[in-house]
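#structure-requests
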Amino acid sequence: MAPHFIELRHSATIGDMPCLLLLVVLFFPRVVLVLIFLLSTYLQRAYHNLIIPLLGFIFLPVTTLCYAWLVNSKTPIEGGYLLLLIVAVIIDVGGIGGGEFHRRRL
């Protein structure tokens, strides 16, 4: 008989996202946006034009990635997914506001 830990190891689904990949997306969202734009049609399927991803690249990169993920996975933007999108906006705006706070302290 096979040990139980072998069965548990194979129970993971293909759709699971490793934590390291999530950290790369959060720490380097603009690099990820450029790579996704150049290497796939992921952003084109979500936005259908170039101006919104370009503005997202400049102002709200994490939100742009989060919204593209929601649209491509065909999940409704309500409930927990809406909360996730709001958290992405807060992460983006917090990065902009944090720099202004430190600049004013000097």
